[in-house]
Structure formats: structure tokens, C-alpha cells
Automatic annotation (TrEMBL):
Sequence ranges of Basic and acidic residues compositional bias: 218-234
InterPro entries per record: HU-CCDC81_bac_1
Top-level taxon of origin: Bacteria
Domain CCDC81-like prokaryotic HU span(s) in chain numbering: 3-50
Region Disordered: start-end pairs: 201-242
Name of the protein: CCDC81-like prokaryotic HU domain-containing protein
Keyword annotations from UniProtKB, A to Z: Membrane, Transmembrane, Transmembrane helix
The keyword Secreted is assigned to this record: no
Membrane-spanning residues: 159-178
Amino acid sequence: MNISACILEYLKQFGSIIVPGFGVFSVEYSKAIINSENGSILPPAGRIAFMLDYEVDSDELAAFIADHRHMSLEASKSDLKIQIDFWKKRLKAEQHLEIQSLGVLSLDEKTIHFKGNRLETDQPDFYGLEEIKLSEIEKSDMPPIEPKNTEKDYRFKGAILWIFLLIIPILGLLYLAYTQQELLFGKKSFRDISVQTKTHRIKDSSKVPMRSIQVKSDSLKKDSLSENHKKETKILSTKNKH
């Protein structure tokens, strides 16, 4: 495993690494991007970033390389220094340096540019997402979408609306007619009732003297009968004496 491959493996595990006397590599997570070169959409993933700094120092990378190559720490430091010196000389001479598996470093006057490679992310939200090619989507046979008959739908909805507009007022009027009859038709007149009560009273008052007359006539008849009876008894008594 070469040094650039060791740096990449360290980045995948820990996300950042100091390369002594050269700079700091790290992983930044980026959104999905459109690749204009081949007309594709790249899913969200990690991208390698780099900050040039010849003053940084650390033994972590050397220890990591020694562990993977099964060598001593001093031998790992020596190999790492040789590689870093080579990168510095080439960058100074050509103003351009491509680091295998990591990215491309370039100098523009006093400005440093680094275009890092993309890394597949292990985040569960993006795991398994693949590159999408727009050309393949355009060529795919998609079933045609049948246009909806909007005119029929409009008529049907309009008919339902008119039905509701007619039924609701009718139901409201029926409800008012049943519950609020006095408001719609006015209060009932009590004239007929008063006339009936008056006539009833007149009839009752007319019956009273008739009954009294009948009672009086009956009493007179009884009195006359009793007097006649008395007279007859007197006549019979006188006849018997003679």
C-alpha cells in the first residue's frame, strides 16, 4: 500500500489527517451535483479537501503507515519524508500536482486550488445511491400519460354544485315552515273562538228559563191535582153522611 492509499484509508476511518511538512487532508460531505461532462447526477457523498501548510507536524500518519506496512516507525517516517519532498518539488516546478486517489493540487500565482476526489459516504440516508445518467432517462420508454377529460369533470362538478345550491335552501325553508309557522304565516285569530264561546253562553242562558218554566208548570199541575182530590174526598164524605 503506497502512501496516498494509506492517507485515503485513514480519511475514511477518521475523517482528517495531518501530513507532516505538507498540509492537512479532510473529508467534507457535499450535496448531489450535476456532472456536465457526461450529463449525470452524482448522489450526495464525501469530498476530499486539502489545506496546504508546510509547518504542520504529527506522527499519526507515520504510525498508521508503519502498522499497515508492518515496519518500524522510523522507517515509516523516512518513506513519508521522501514522498512529501517529491510532492513539493513537483508542485513548485509544474504548478500542478496530481496525488493518486486524493485529488489535484494546482498553484495560480499565489492562490492554491485543490480539487478533491469524491468518496462514497457511509451515511444511512445516502447509502446505496448511485449515479444517474440523464441520457438513459430520456431514452427509457415511459408509458404515455392519457390526458384527462377536464370538460366532463367540470360539468359533473358543476351539476353537483347546483344540486347542493338548490337543495339546501329548500330544506331550510321546510325547516322554518315546520318550526316557525307564526313567523311565516302570522298568529292565529281568536275571533272564531270568541264567537263560539259567546254563542255557547247564549244557548246556555236560553235553556235556563225553559227549564224553570217547565218546573213551575209541573208544580202547578201537582197543586191542581191535590185540590181536586181534596174536593172529591169532601163530596164522598158528605154523601156517606146522608
